[in-house]
Amino acid sequence: MTYTPKRFDGLSVLAGKMGMPFYTVGGNQLLWDSDVNPEGIAVKYTTALSDTLSLFANGGGMWVEERGSDVDTSLWGLQGGLTHSFENKSKLTGGGGIP
């Protein structure tokens, strides 16, 4: 499920089985595997701060492994960053996160 409230432009709330909600640089699988479809809840927010600068923030809690005889393994993460667009249509993105 994806919920995008009209009242908060740029906000998306995802729940259930979803694609990876976290930002990956150029599709690189160094931090997040692109073929993993986690289950849980995530929040994504993007907004333009100016014509050339935008902000993004992502957060989520997902189940990694469900166990019947022990405590389930979960993943909680936050990330945020800024993207600057240049006149030649290239972009520079910087950010950080806590997995």
Brief rundown of the structure:
By secondary structure, the chain is an all-beta fold. 0% of the residues lie in helices and 54% in strands.
Query: What is the H-and-E element order?
Result: EEEEEE
Number of strands: 6
The N- and C-terminal alpha carbons lie at a distance of 23 Å
CATH class: Mainly Beta
Question: How is the secondary structure organized here?
Answer:
Layout: E1 2-3, E2 11-17, E3 39-48, E4 53-65, E5 73-85, E6 91-98
Antiparallel strand pairs: 1-2, 2-3, 3-4, 4-5, 5-6
Properties at a glance:
single chain; mainly beta; Porin; six-stranded antiparallel beta sheet; 54% strand; globular
Structural description of this entry:
With 99 residues, this protein is mainly β. The chain has one domain (2-98): Porin. Helices cover 0% and strands 54% of the residues. It is built from no helices and 6 strands. The radius of gyration is 15 Å and the shape is globular. The mean pLDDT is 89.
